[in-house]
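If you are new to this repository, start here. Below is one unmodified record pulled from the training split, so you can see the exact layout before writing a loader.
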Amino acid sequence: MTTVKSDKTQNHTYEINKNQVFIGFALLAALVVFGIFQYNKNYALGLHLVIGLTIGYVMQRSRFGFAGGIRKIYLTGDSSLTKALLFMFSITLIVTAVIHYGHALNGADVYYRAVESGAAVIPGSDYVEPANLATIIGGILFGIGMMLGGGCASGTLTDAGEGEGRGLIVLFFFSTGALWGAHDMPWWKGSIFFEIHKQLYLPDVFGYLGTIIISLLGFLAMYIIAKKYENKRKKEGTFTHETYAQWEQELPEAKDYKFFSQETYHKFFVKRWSFYTGAVCLMIMFTAILTTTGTSWGVTAIFAQWAGWFYDSLLGIIDISTWPWFEGRMETMKAGFFNDPGSMRNAGILLGATLSLLLAGKFSFKRNFKLRDIIFYAIGGLMMGYGARIALGCNIGALYSGISNMSLSGWVFLPSLVTGGILGVKLVKKLKINL
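And here is the target side for that same chain:
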């Protein structure tokens, strides 16, 4: 361990573990080699490993998360993350609308119509899902589970990568819940919860410009509500402003600044990024996925596949080959984990978070929880996994990709998720769960 002192006149010191930094660069080099190997097998494998690593790194450096957008403002009154999320939704929707419009001008159509007509498919339009009662139920279940488990889908991967024992527990049960939901999908699809539905691509009603304007007005309304709530908490004296850990803060400018210095390293690899920096970077990664794959960003369907590999291929206690949900996915399942671009992306998110903390010299394993906490983490993971399957997506697939790809279902999932999240926060406070 070494202590870095930025300025002797100020009490601004922090410890950095040089061994972790070396391990971090060694891990980075190993991932570059592995990425090249995967790219040579299939460019999509290497590409999505890089995208995942970038997402995980960005989320850790900026502490960006969807669960925090609900939990933070409800507990502290601080709306900074909530507003950054709304900013990310806004810029992503604008970029995505331009991409959709360009393809539509060339004769492409949304996925559910293109399948029947044989037209080219608008990238990401396969995330225009039916909005139904299951969307609402799944959103509420996911929101509650998100708070019990301490993170959303992408957040759980990031937490696990940061060395959070809680994150690893939640990830296991999250995947198990997703597999459980996949098993039950035939029942849900045959029930009233799916039969009464509305599958709507918003530009069909409002046009592309109209959809952008209406969506931005919706985000603006939520921004105003969040800001007013923050002001209300400030007046009541119940507002708590978020503070960064000392090692994450900007170092004071050195009198004789040198590029090759501790200050430069801190700026590039240690200092915390703003939420808005995280929002812009995640929008870029979202767009990269959309333009390189023709589909959008999803997380939890991969979790169901991971559980399928574990319970079927590894343990042999179930046979997923007869499940309708896995129809069309068995080729991917037989190819294995390392030959699935989605798995590479999710694994990359986890490793990107690990890499971020190692390069900052601040990685640690955290096990500050009790048996009762583990039970709640497990319940939270199961609720998120199951809720995501019946809602046809999570905070990423159903919410972020749904809204950005201009699906009505995304706007139905949003209030359901928020409702579940608020209920979950209250449960966490009442049950005194350690997060």
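Two things worth knowing about this chain: The radius of gyration is 22 Å. Residues 25-242+269-431 form one domain.
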